[in-house]
Task: structure prediction
Amino acid sequence: MRTTFDFSPLYRSSIGFDRMLDTLEAASRVETIDTWPPYDIAKTGEDDYRIAMAVAGFSPDELAITQEQTMLVVSGRKAGEDKAEYLHRGIAERSFRRRFQLADHVKVTGAELQNGLLTIDLRHEIPEEMKPRRIEIAARPRTEPKRIEAGKEAA
Result:
């Protein structure tokens, strides 16, 4: 049974909707669900958001945050191998790559690693030319309609 959709006919018959179709195609792909590292997404203001990821054991040099158009990618790779002999290893230090799909005009404003928690601050900034604006309606002076006077009645 086929679980993917073929959007190629829509590409042929639409103009300017490429990005929307790419998003639909990406959403229809079945990817393995990886739950590591755990993360939270919080709305901290009207247009502000924060992603918090638990990345215990990683240093800032071992983490990378990149934004490509509307995709935020957070990846981590351990630099060296620990030579210790573990009796139990509960802190995962494996490499990871986590992707977040962002809305249009969302920008990363900052990132911080503190106590094993990576926080990424985001802001949704709509450009001035795309914000709704009020159009003033000009009022023309009202003119009286012209009256045509009827001629004098014939006697």
Residues 18-28 form the longest helix (11 residues).
